C-alpha cells in the first residue's frame, strides 16, 4: 500500500511521527509512506488553499517533502507533483495535537487535508488525539493514537462506501484523552456540538500601546449530546465519524419548500 501522510501541526510535530508509525504498519514491508507536510503550524486553516501565490516545496529526504502552505495544499502538491506518477492508495492526516471533534471539526486543517483527499478521489482519514489531565503527563501523550490507530484505519478501509452522493466519504477519528491501555473501544458517532462553546477573542495591549486580539478556544471538556463524537471520547472511546464535503442542509428542505417558484 502507498500512503501519503500530512498534518496541520507542521513537519516537525510529534503527532506526525506517531502517524508515520501508523502508516508504516498499514503499508507493510512492501509498501511506501510519503510525507508532505507544512513547514509551519497551520492549525485552524480548515480547507484553505494557497490560491493566489506560488507554493514553495522542499525535498527533505526520500519520500519526504515540506510545503509552505496549508494541509490541503500539501495534498494537492503531493498528488500533482512528487506522487503524480503513482498516486497514494490512502491519505492520513494528523495525528493532531488536540481533538477535532464537535465544532472544532469545522476549523481544522487536519480535516481540511482529508476533505481535499476525498475530493481528489483518494480514501482519506483524519486522526486527532484528545488531550486532558489523564494523558498530558504520559511519556508519549499520543500513545492511544499510536497503539490503536492502525486497527481503526483497517476497520475503516474494510467498509464499502456508498458514493451515490457524488462527494466521497472521508473519516474523522478522535482518540480519547487517556492512556492506550484504558481505551474502552471504538464508537461510530456523529459530529456533536458543545453547548455554549465558541471561539472568541482576548484583548492584549502591547508595551508600545498597540491593541491586539488573541483568538481563544472554548472549554474542550464540555460534552455535547450523549453518543456524539466528543461525548464518547470523554467516556473513553475512540470516535469514528464518516463525513462528506456536502454542506447542504438536507433536513431543512421540507420546511423551506415554499421558496420554490
From TrEMBL:
Binds 1 divalent metal cation per subunit. It comes from the Bacteria. It is found in: Cytoplasm. GO terms for cellular component: cytoplasm. GO terms for molecular function: 3'-nucleotidase activity; 5'-nucleotidase activity; exopolyphosphatase activity; metal ion binding; nucleotide binding. Keywords: Cytoplasm, Hydrolase, Metal-binding, Nucleotide-binding. Pfam families: SurE. InterPro entries: SurE, SurE-like_Pase/nucleotidase, SurE-like_sf. Its cofactor is a divalent metal cation. Nucleotidase that shows phosphatase activity on nucleoside 5'-monophosphates. Belongs to the SurE nucleotidase family. PANTHER family: 5'-NUCLEOTIDASE SURE, 5'_3'-NUCLEOTIDASE SURE. HAMAP family: SurE (MF_00060). This is 5'-nucleotidase SurE. The gene is surE.
Amino acid at each position: 500500500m502507498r500512503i501519503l501522510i500530512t498534518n496541520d501541526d507542521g513537519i516537525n510535530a510529534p503527532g506526525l511521527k506517531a502517524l508515520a508509525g501508523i502508516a508504516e504498519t498499514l503499508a507493510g514491508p512492501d509498501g511506501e509512506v510519503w510525507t508532505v507536510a507544512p513547514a509551519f503550524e497551520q492549525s485552524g486553516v480548515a480547507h484553505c488553499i494557497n490560491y493566489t501565490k506560488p507554493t514553495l516545496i522542499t525535498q527533505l529526504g526520500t519520500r519526504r517533502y515540506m510545503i509552505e502552505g496549508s494541509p490541503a495544499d500539501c495534498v494537492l502538491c503531493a498528488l500533482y507533483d512528487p506522487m503524480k506518477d503513482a498516486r497514494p492508495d490512502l491519505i492520513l492526516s494528523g495525528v493532531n495535537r488536540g481533538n477535532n471533534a464537535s465544532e472544532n471539526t469545522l476549523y481544522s486543517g487536519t480535516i481540511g487535508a482529508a476533505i481535499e483527499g476525498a475530493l481528489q478521489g483518494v480514501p482519506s482519514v483524519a486522526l486527532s488525539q484528545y488531550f486532558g489531565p489523564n494523558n498530558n503527563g504520559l511519556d508519549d501523550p499520543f500513545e492511544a493514537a499510536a497503539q490503536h490507530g492502525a486497527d481503526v484505519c483497517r476497520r475503516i478501509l474494510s467498509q464499502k462506501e456508498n458514493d451515490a452522493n457524488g462527494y466521497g466519504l472521508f473519516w474523522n477519528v478522535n482518540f480519547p484523552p487517556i492512556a492506550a491501555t484504558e481505551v474502552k473501544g471504538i464508537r461510530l458517532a456523529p459530529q456533536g456540538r458543545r453547548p455554549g462553546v465558541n471561539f472568541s477573542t482576548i484583548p492584549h495591549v502591547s508595551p508600545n500601546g498597540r491593541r491586539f486580539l488573541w483568538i481563544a478556544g472554548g472549554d474542550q471538556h464540555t460534552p455535547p449530546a450523549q453518543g456524539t463524537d466528543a461525548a464518547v471520547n470523554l467516556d473513553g472511546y475512540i470516535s469514528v465519524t464518516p463525513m462528506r464535503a456536502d454542506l447542504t442542509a438536507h433536513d431543512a428542505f421540507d420546511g423551506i419548500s415554499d421558496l420554490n417558484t
